[in-house]
Amino acid sequence: MANERTAGLSLIYRLELQNSSNTFGKVAQIIGEEGGDIIGVDVVHVDKDHSIRDVNVNVFDRRHGKVIRERLEEAEGIHVVNLSDRTMLMHLGGKIEIRSKIPVRNRDELARVYTPHVATICEAIHEDPSKAFKLTIKKNTVAVVSDGTAVLGLGDIGPYAAMPVMEGKAMLFKQFAGVDAFPICLDTKDTEAIIAHIKAIAPAFGGINLEDISSPRCFEIEARLKEELDIPVFHDDQHGTAVVLLAGLMNACKLVGKQLEDLKVVVTGIGAAGIACTKMLLLAGVRNIMGVDRMGVISRNHEYENPMWQWYAEHTNPNNLEGTLSDVIKGADVFIGVSGPGVLTVEHLQSMAQDPIVFAMANPNPEIDPDVAAPYVRVMATGRSDYPNQINNLLCFPSIFKGALDCRASDINEEMKLAASHAIASTVSDEELSEHYIIPSVFNKKVVQAVRLAVIEAAYRTGVARRRYRDYSDKQ
Ligand SMILES: NC(=O)c1ccc[n+]([C@@H]2O[C@H](COP(=O)([O-])OP(=O)(O)OC[C@H]3O[C@@H](n4cnc5c(N)ncnc54)[C@H](O)[C@@H]3O)[C@@H](O)[C@H]2O)c1
Ligand SMILES: O=C(O)C[C@H](O)C(=O)O
Ligand SMILES: [Mg+2]
Q1: Residue 471, pLDDT score
Q2: Residues 74-97: tens digit of each pLDDT
Q3: Is residue 148 within 8 Å of 218, Cβ to Cβ?
Q4: What is the per-residue pLDDT for 2?
Q5: Does residue 427 have a pLDDT over 90?
Q6: Which residue's C-alpha comes closest to atom 6 of ligand 1?
Q7: Which of 12, 156, 340, 409 is the most exposed place for a label (fewest CB within 10 A)?
Q8: Taking CB atoms and a 6 Å cutoff, what residues make up the pocket around ligand 2?
């Protein structure tokens, strides 16, 4: 499955052409012969010997684009300077920037926003550190922190390569919930160092969104930070995914007429997302869950080095089954994939119970191609934006943090997460509910407000909100 399903693959070949021989004619001929579609040409530069042109070409996929490039490079008088595409162009120079809220037009304004008058603000915060929430960006700013070790399903690609995802998360925090977020990729994989760095930067932020940190280190990092910091710490791949998954599953069950407590559920990929999704489902009343990772089904017949797998063995797989995915998927009502592409086959789907519910959530490529799976499933969901039923943590992380920041919560607890799941599920009405609409779109504005309010209400109910309710409710 091509990653560019919605975006379409439109490549831009920057070519340096010799003026002498009919080189542009050759370019058009080569591209035509190879089945590319020229949709535009821009002249970038011309001198007496050469011209530089950007040739915009629709191709089938990246491999097709490469074949055309190779053919062009072989031709006399044509030099391929660069090959880019719309996605690449959207990333030039990064996707976000910082802007001031106040213009500084003269010395008087300068003296207020900066020295000398800013000193009075510093002193006020020094006297009462809680004023940082009122007088600095802490009020509405989150750090999105990764070490680049579990980036989407791409794995350990390092802190530099992780930045586009973290910038993307920051961008989405702002666009979907008005939260300012800053991407921070740490050049260390050491648990203690990560904890120390995050603690050291925490004064500037009202919350910490941990992202794409591999398991099992992510569990300890989050647990320690939750204990040692007084602002919410939320590992998005765990809890964001689990919140949205539960919302989708509640609605899918309503559609197929099954109850959560009667379901047989198989989860593949027992990492950050798989463990959190399982915990959330147990909390919501699901009783029969089996986990499958690379070495097979997690059972009580084994001792695991990974303490989370030990926990998993003790809390799931009620019949203590062993084997592979093929063994346990038989008769399952629900498949939840947070592992990688190609894990699920048509044979697996054919062996599931009636009305199979398949949430293949690995990014960027799900456990099975949804087009291949479609004839064999009743409800199909992926993590992607280009198919119906997008089960992606994007549907909740901006609004959960918005709610937590607005009531100055010290934590994002289980009650707040459950409230968020119910709020998401309830934005799909009974009339709207269908195989292709179990979960609202990320662009549905009702979702952000519903989740934010549900999270705030749960924060006050469970005593983690630190803003006086009167101050909060007066502004509503
Ligand atoms: N849709 C969403 O909102 C969402 C959210 C979080 C994660 N994800 C996706 O889920 C996947 C896992 O993310 P994570 O943060 O939990 O990563 P992780 O590294 O913590 O865990 C991944 C786990 O999957 C296992 N795994 C990998 N390939 C497997 C295979 N072929 N068979 C069985 N197990 C396999 C690994 O051994 C590991 O235990 C990624 O593809 C990620 O993009 C999707
Ligand atoms: O980034 C996403 O789209 C979802 C999730 O956080 C992931 O890691 O795949
Ligand atoms: Mg992620």
Answers
A1: 65
A2: 999 999 999 998 888 899 999 999
A3: no
A4: 43
A5: yes
A6: 237
A7: 156
A8: 152, 165, 212, 236-237, 363, 383, 392-393
Q: Report the pLDDT value the prediction gives residue 5, as an integer from 0 to 100.
A: 47
Whether 132 and 125 have beta carbons less than 8 Å apart is answered as yes
CA angle 307, 269, 166 (to 5 degrees): 95
Nearest ligand, CA 383: 1
Question: Residue 200 C-alpha to ligand 1 middle, in angstroms?
Answer: 29
Q: Residue 152 in contact with residue 363, Cβ under 8 Å?
A: yes
338 lines ligand 1 (CB under 6 A): yes
Judge contact between 281 and 246, C-beta under 8 A: yes
| CATH numbers and ranges of domains, the chain | 10-90 (3.30.70.260), 136-231 (3.40.50.10380), 236-476 (3.40.50.720)
Give 247-291 pLDDT, tens digit per residue. Answer: 999 999 999 999 999 999 999 999 999 999 999 999 999 999 999
Cα–Cα distance measured from residue 249 to residue 255, given in angstroms and rounded to the nearest whole number: 10
Name the residue of 211, 298, 310, 361 to mutate for ligand 1: max ligand atoms within 8 A of Cβ: 361
138 is catalytic: no
Cα distance between residue 163 and residue 204, in whole Å? 20
Q: How far apart are the first and last CA of the chain?
A: 46
Mean model confidence pLDDT for the chain: 95
As a whole number of angstroms, the distance between CA 341 and CA 269 comes to 11
C-alpha span between 317 and 422 (Å, rounded): 26
Q: How much distance in Å is there from the Cα of 362 to the middle of ligand 2?
A: 8
Is the confidence at residue 22, as pLDDT, over 90? Answer: no
Q: Is 387 tagged catalytic?
A: no
Joined tokens for residue 62: 């990246």
Structure tokens at 159: 């802190």
- Nearest atom of ligand 2 to the alpha carbon of 363: 9
Among candidate residues 138, 169, 279, 417, the one labeled active-site is 169
